[in-house]
Write a structure and sequence with these properties.
Elements: H1 2-7, E1 22-23, E2 26-27, E3 31-34, E4 37-41, H2 43-47, H3 52-77, H4 83-111, H5 113-131, H6 137-153, H7 158-164, H8 171-186, H9 189-200, H10 202-222
Antiparallel strand pairs: 1-2, 3-4
Helix pairs in contact: 3-4, 3-8, 3-9, 3-10, 4-5, 4-6, 5-6, 5-10, 7-8, 9-10
């Protein structure tokens, strides 16, 4: 769905221009559709791996909305913080998210996209699960900052990983379509968290959110690593 959705709006170029771009000898799973005809399709399109970036965008947004929507309620109802203090604790988590984005970008350029995502995904899983078990306000304050770093820091890598896995003719469209779909999926997170919290409590709901990052780690295994490699068709 991902590549087809991204490619379909682009129909202003000729059939000869709609080429399938190789990256270092590996074909990209990309489909260009012109007048409802498939012009070019790579093995990724056949195998369905074109939807993987869409999947990790969905996980990112699901975790973000699931955490921030219910975090103030969790802090006031479960830990007994005042409204003012819960706002402060949430702000510290957001500051951690900002720091995480900057750290991720530096790390991804040094050790590669996949390794960086795996580090942050594992960190998000561990920190979010640990956060759900904390009871001391000071521990929650510090844990929230750490959770913010890992849970949202990956946002700094989606622009690069999508651009590096899509041909020039569809990169901008892919960025908007895939992350837009991710936001749409993430919009269900507050509802899902509320249902789990009503069933097992907010601590269990946060623990449930931690599990989605395991799915993210598996998806990253299947997305090609192209950090630092030349992208054919890119403007020098």
């Amino acid at each position: 769905m991902g590549f087809r959705c991204a490619a379909r709006p682009i129909a202003a170029f000729s059939r000869d221009d709609a080429v399938h771009e190789p990256h270092d000898g590996v074909e990209v799973g990309f489909v260009v559709v012109v007048d409802d005809d498939v012009v070019s399709a790579g093995p990724g399109a056949v195998l369905g791996s074109e939807s993987l970036p869409e999947g990790i965008c969905s996980v990112q947004n699901f975790g973000y909305y699931g955490i921030l929507t219910w975090l103030p309620t969790y802090l006031t109802q479960q830990l007994g913080l005042s409204t003012t203090n819960s706002g402060l604790w949430t702000a510290v988590t957001v500051l951690g998210m900002i720091a995480g984005i900057m750290i991720f970008g530096q790390l991804a350029d040094r050790i590669g996209r996949r390794r960086s995502f795996w580090i942050f995904q594992a960190g998000a899983f561990i920190s979010l699960f640990a956060y759900s078990q904390l009871t001391s306000p000071m521990a929650v304050l510090i844990g929230g900052a750490v959770m913010g770093v890992f849970a949202n820091g990956m946002l700094g890598g989606y622009g690069a990983i999508i651009a590096e896995n899509y041909p020039t003719v569809a990169r901008a469209t892919a960025q908007n379509v895939l992350f837009g779909i991710g936001r749409g999926v993430g919009g269900f997170a507050p509802l899902v968290v509320a249902l789990v919290a009503g069933w097992q409590g907010f601590g269990a709901a946060l623990g449930f959110l931690a599990l989605i990052y395991i799915v993210d780690m598996v998806a990253m295994l299947l997305i090609p690593e192209r950090g630092g490699k030349r992208l054919d068709g890119a403007v020098a």
